[in-house]
């Protein structure tokens, strides 16, 4: 659906805003808001506390989740205040408070004055142009932060308050529609992931020939396996060692340092990988990764997740993970086993949840049982899974592309509405639901 344009435009005098509707005023943010700097001891206050991790990037939504242990001073806010994450502002952590509470001191608490509607301010501070300008002002290379001295001097566009409310209502309605579409796409991604796991699980426990005789494996979660296969513990098929506990000094252009957060569902996310100074690496710990080593996450929310090391990451440094080297079986075949239901849900799940915090050690990993066919059959199964996975990867990419376009549309719509690039005053929300 296309939207009307404002008929009368004038120069805003601000390069990144360009033109604005002629009847919109422009003012420095600090003159239309108050910065609330009330610090409260977290331990002594009964008010609920949230951290920046509980604000979703680019949406303004509050995320329900575990509250990290916090102490010291936090910023007090009340209903209707806008919370803006000044740490790494490119993450666009902006939230309109729906209740009183406390937030990390890494957030600014901004209270709008009568001429500025709070919900409009939230969307304005979420707009792509505003975030980009704030991000360009940050200081500190490791923990970039923005300051109120800079943000408060930025311009804010001021339609009449009733028009601000109309724009905010339009964005509330439209972003809810977009978010519902994004949720549907994520549901589809979850289904594709389930299909992927089911494909792997069946191939590494039942094989490719449905006519072969089966026998009991003797392992509850493994069930029946082909009669000519063997059930073996990983410690009898390969060796496990630990990566580094502490990361060496970071260095641009240094050696890749692969952490648990870089491992997800059998893949290493190259976009996240940091680089470290080789002179600071404790080489006696044998941290160097070889192609076909298998990284296994040993603690945290993704304990038990794993990924085989591809050739491109050979020579990287292993972070706080376990490194499994298959010696008596195909490394690719073992890697697929570690992604299967009978290992993740049946064995690793039990091992990692024995303690208060999810954790897996080398002994527990070594006790994991896998079903081993003869070597030539391992190769056939790996080839079959890889071929089948290519079709799923195409579907994953298509759905992820839709999600990316929806996020881009959402961001563009907010930016265009709060900077006067589109006129939504005469848009009826009933018409929107039919669009």
Provide the descriptors you would attach to this structure in a database record.
435 residues, Adenine-n6-DNA-methyltransferase TaqI, Chain A, domain 2, 2 domains, elongated
Characterize the structure shown.
The structure is a single chain. A 4-stranded antiparallel β-sheet has the order 4-11-8-9. The protein has a 4-stranded mixed β-sheet with strand order 5-7-10-6, with no helix packed on it. The model has no long low-confidence stretch (mean pLDDT about 90). It has about 425 residues and is an alpha+beta fold. The longest helix is centred in the middle third of the chain and has 46 residues, at about 160-205. About 30% of the residues are buried. It has helices spanning about 30, 120-125, 130-135, 150, 160-205, 330-335, 340-350, 360-365, 375-420, 430-435, and strands at about 10, 20, 25-30, 35, 40, 50, 75, 80-85, 95, 100-105, 105-110, 155-160, 215, 225, 230-235, 240, 250-260, 265, 265-270, 275, 295, 305-310, 315-320, 320-325, 370. The protein folds into 2 domains: about 10-180 and about 405-435, Adenine-n6-DNA-methyltransferase TaqI, Chain A, domain 2 (Alpha-Beta Complex); about 210-370, Alpha-Beta Complex (Adenine-n6-DNA-methyltransferase TaqI, Chain A, domain 2).
């Amino acid at each position: 659906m296309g939207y009307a344009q404002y008929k009368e435009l004038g120069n805003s005098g601000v390069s990144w805003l360009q033109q604005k509707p002629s009847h919109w005023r422009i003012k420095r943010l600090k003159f239309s808001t108050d910065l609330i700097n009330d610090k409260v001891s977290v331990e002594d206050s009964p008010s609920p506390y949230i951290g920046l991790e509980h604000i979703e990037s680019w949406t303004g939504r509050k995320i329900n989740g575990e509250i990290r242990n916090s102490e010291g001073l936090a910023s007090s806010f009340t209903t209707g205040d806008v919370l803006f994450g000044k740490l790494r502002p490119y993450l666009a952590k902006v939230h309109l408070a729906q209740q009183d509470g406390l937030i990390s001191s890494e957030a600014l608490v901004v209270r709008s004055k009568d001429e500025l509607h709070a919900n409009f301010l939230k969307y304005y501070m979420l707009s792509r142009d505003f975030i980009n300008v704030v991000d360009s002002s940050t200081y500190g290379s490791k923990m970039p932060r923005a300051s109120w001295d800079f943000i408060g001097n930025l311009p804010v566009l001021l339609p009449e308050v009733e028009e601000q409310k109309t724009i905010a209502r339009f964005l509330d309605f439209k972003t809810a529609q977009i978010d519902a579409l994004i949720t549907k796409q994520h549901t589809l991604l979850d289904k594709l992931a389930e299909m992927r796991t089911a494909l792997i699980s069946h191939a590494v426990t039942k094989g490719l020939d449905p006519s072969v005789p089966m026998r009991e494996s003797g392992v509850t979660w493994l069930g029946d396996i082909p009669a000519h296969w063997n059930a073996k513990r990983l410690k009898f098929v390969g060796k496990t060692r630990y990566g580094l506990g502490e990361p060496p000094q970071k260095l641009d252009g240094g050696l890749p340092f692969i952490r648990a957060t870089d491992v997800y569902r059998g893949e290493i996310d190259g976009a996240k990988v940091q680089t470290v100074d080789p002179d600071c690496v404790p080489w006696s710990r044998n941290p160097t990764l070889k192609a076909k080593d298998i990284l296994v996450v040993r603690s945290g929310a993704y304990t038990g997740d794993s990924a085989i090391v591809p050739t491109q990451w050979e020579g990287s440094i292993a972070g706080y993970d376990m490194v499994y080297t298959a010696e008596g079986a195909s490394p690719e075949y073992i890697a697929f086993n570690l992604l299967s239901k009978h290992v993740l849900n049946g064995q690793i799940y039990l091992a990692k949840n024995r303690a208060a915090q999810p954790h897996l050690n080398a002994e527990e990993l070594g006790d994991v049982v896998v079903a081993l066919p003869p070597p030539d059959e391992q190769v056939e199964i790996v080839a079959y899974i890889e071929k089948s996975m290519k079709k799923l990867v195409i579907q994953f990419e298509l759905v992820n592309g839709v999600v990316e376009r929806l996020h881009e549309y959402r961001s563009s719509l907010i930016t265009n509405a709060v900077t006067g690039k589109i006129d939504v005053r005469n848009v009826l929300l009933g018409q929107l639901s039919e669009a």
